[in-house]
Amino acid sequence: VRDNYLKRPPGGEPIKLSTCLRFVRMHDLADRIADEVLLTPVLYSMHDGQPQHAYNLGEGDVRLQLRLVSFAICKGKRLAAGRLIERFGLLDLGLEDLELPCWSEAQGRFRDVCQACVREAEEAEERELRAASDRKMAAAAEEDACCLQLPEAVAANVFLVSTEAELQEIRVRLQSVVESAPADGPDAGTLLGRRGAAIGLDTEWKPFLEKRGGMQKHRRSSQSVVSMEPCSTLQVAAEDFVVVFDLLALAPADRGTAQTLSAILTSLFNHRGIVKLGFGLQNDLQRLAASYPHLDCFKQIYGTLDLQEALMEARRNKGQTTGLSSLCLEFLGSPLSKRLQTSDWGARPLRPEQLSYAALDAHCLLTLARTLHSHDREPAIKAAMRLQDLKVHSVAQKMVVSVAGVALPAATVDAEAVAKASQDIALKGSEIRAMKAAGKAKSAWQAEVAVLLQLKARFRELAGVDWVPPVSPAVS
Known about the structure:
Blueprint: H1 17-26, H2 35-47, H3 52-58, H4 62-74, H5 78-88, H6 110-140, H7 152-155, E1 158-161, H8 164-180, H9 188-192, E2 198-205, H10 214-217, E3 231-237, E4 242-246, H11 247-250, H12 258-269, E5 275-278, H13 281-291, E6 300-306, H14 307-314, H15 324-332, H16 352-373, H17 379-384, E7 388-395, E8 398-403, H18 415-437, H19 442-463
Parallel strand pairs: 1-4, 2-5, 5-6
Antiparallel strand pairs: 2-3, 3-4, 6-7, 7-8
């Protein structure tokens, strides 16, 4: 083993590491091989982007896991050590009074050093993710030239609101929209035909880290279910300007700006003379309400028009796509750039290109709605563009949106059964993620996916809505 697999002589063949490690595990040889010989190539493989060798070597053997981690720390490979500690869940162990062959008191308490390594590894991964995102956005920037752009006059009036002073300034501007709107609107067409009687709404949030790989991908099934991120921004687009509300700064319950923000938005959302345009608006409202349950403004919106719902209804038998970018290409002549959709909306400060992207997603709804309503070739689209009232209800501690102001009858919902079904779905999803992270066969976790789909179907029968992961309320 030592001479033929774990050594790379000058000019020799590559190390056959996977074959060697299987042999070592099969015959329980790890204790017979020195750390320098056995563990050095394993750490090198992690550096080369192949952590599975370390994972497979230590799987199920806590002594070998600790030996590998302590060796990595002693060799200055703290990032590799942090990833291994997280992968093996070693911080859940006591880590006290351990006798490690290459550890000395001068290095500090082993547990403290392990915690520091995990923090360093997480910070390094975040830096890598940001750098990769920046490279991707830079490479795709040239493609934006052929995409839909904000009108110059509107682009010059995109306002980021994140402080009390900015909130008071924008309050005056939004109040003018309310005052100039008609008292009521009989239908969507009437309001869309009036300048100043429509606003576009959209929201952004930080991408779900678990989908991005690295340490986040390797959370163990015994850990708590990862919650979805709260909404980071809310965009409100009027005819000549767009407001980007920084919800992470303004909306948390302990901020003095929270109720002021709620009052400003309520005056807009409850005005029936202003049509509120969205794309997937029910999902956005559900997420906003779950993110900030203490704000009344996200509990109901009157006079909404969801363009996605209208297109799906009008084209339900045609099998045509209803993505916002493709619709802009079809009806406005240019697609939307989506390269910033998965950028880090939780990072501050927001970049100028993020603000432009967020503003355009909301403002394009105004032009798109009017174009769709006047589209003579598909009268079904115009017929499907009806105003709706949206209200949010809490069912079994989940936010559920009802349409046309009709509340869900409490007597028809078995809250306990809904809560149990939701818990089963979350646990099954966590189990599937753990199986994928552990490299289980595809056939194994696909069988569990089938069970997950059955659980989700059961949830819909009980609650009347599709299951969505819980949203973490925003904290300061």
